[in-house]
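Dear all,

This email documents one entry for the complex benchmark we are building for the journal club exercise. For each entry we list the sequence lines for every component of the assembly. Then comes the predicted three-dimensional structure of the complex as a token string, followed by one or two observations. Please use this as the template for your own entries, and keep the labels exactly as they appear.
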Amino acid sequence: MKTYDIVIVGGGPAGLAAAVAAKEAGNDSILILERDHELGGILNQCIHNGFGLHTFKEELTGPEYAYRFIKQVLDLGIEYKLNTMVMDIAADKTVTAMNREDGMFQIPAKAVILAMGCRERPRGALNIPGYRPAGIFSAGTAQRLVNIEGYMPGREVVILGSGDIGLIMARRMTLEGAKVKVVAELLPYSGGLKRNIVQCLDDYGIPLKLSHTVVDIEGKEHVTAVTIAEVGPDRKPIPGTEERYTCDTLLLSCGLIPENELSRSAGVQMSPITSGPVVNESLETNIPGVFACGNVLHVHDLVDYVSEEAKRAGQNAVKYINDGCKNAEASDVIELVATEGARYTVPSTINKSRMDDLLTVRFRVGDVYKNSFVSVYFDDERVMHNEKRILAPGEMEQIILQKKKLDEYPNLKKITVKIEKE
Amino acid sequence: METRELTCIGCPMGCLLTVTLDNGEVTEVKGNTCAKGDIYARKEVVNPTRIVTSTVKITSGDKERVSVKTANDIPKNKIFEVMKDIDAAEVKAPVKIGDVLVKNVAGTGVDVIATRNVEAV
């Protein structure tokens, strides 16, 4: 079997951008493995617009955004295999995969880039009482049925969860003639973008009920009705607040989970908060030469940031190979800590000798904060204090660290990111 | 005098805007915390427009549907008329990104264009 320098697992936005960047950084031995029958990943079914404002300075639909990168992959002659499932990644970076043409095969790689994306949280993980009839879909499944296959999953719809895919599907189903009766959100705020709440719900008079959840699903063969109720601060339903909606479809938009089965079995260290790998400044995991980017690393809200992150992973994989596949030095490591409102940071550590002049650190907050500050401490000294009118869990935040600033602190051990009132 | 309430989409703040109109002309925007809110409110109240995205049935191609969008934004109150024309359309593969699939959709003067390639089989 042929060998490759870099094997990229996943041909969605992260895998495509990583491949293009690695090729442009001078590596000619790259293979993308994609389990679907085409490149582009989930963007192919995201037919709505609003992608690419940062990357291309124009508003594209998902398929158009994907094609910008697919075209580069084709033009650069980067190799890829479709309909190919990766079965295993070994700690020595041997990738085992299979498809109908090649059967089972193994590729010894010098570097592996994890770009598997994420999955939707399914009903089984949500503890919703009631029957288990047909007619319950994750929002993304419904999106695939409507946009790719051309089927309508139902005519009268209730949606649980106000993530962006749920909001987008509320509009999409409405445009195709369905009646979306209500969107229920367990939390007191929506995790979706404001623009989606206005243009997908308000535009069509679809009510959004915050602090509400589904307490019953009726129907033995097919969904016939869904009951929602208000929840208290403990997120438990309040008796007497139940409202019953007759419907034939329940869509679930209750969060995304990075898809890391392969990473785990390879021995990649995982973060319990992001459910993605723990990475250093090079987006490299604890296994030298295994990099991660995109939604498999942490769930993003904008694909532009996925592309940018993946580009760094691709460049760093080439750098790792060009430097002779050396392990990162254990000394000289600065730890990044998220606390007091900041939930996590990507990366988690910085190896200063390998750091670029500027390093983007991305993080999320755990609650809605108004008129607060994003503060950065170098050990105990506050070095950054950026005022923010609003911080919300649904919007990824970032800080940019300068290498020359870090050089002023030669004994720096810990960088802390926190949210402060003043 | 008439007032309308809307939510600004400029950022996650989601300011609740109150717009005062006199004979269809905006006389005052209140509730915004920055200039984005003012600009958004004036456009949204007088001439709300949207890009419509959907799919069109395609035959003899390697896919069942081809995704489409209106090449420019169309008046918000025309969305369902536009959807009716899009749903009635049927095209034949091959189709390339940017190909016009429905001309002058619902009399808006705007074309509906393909947003992905579909190869003929």
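Observations: The first strand of chain B starts at residue 2 and ends at 7. The helical segments of chain B are 35-46, 79-88.
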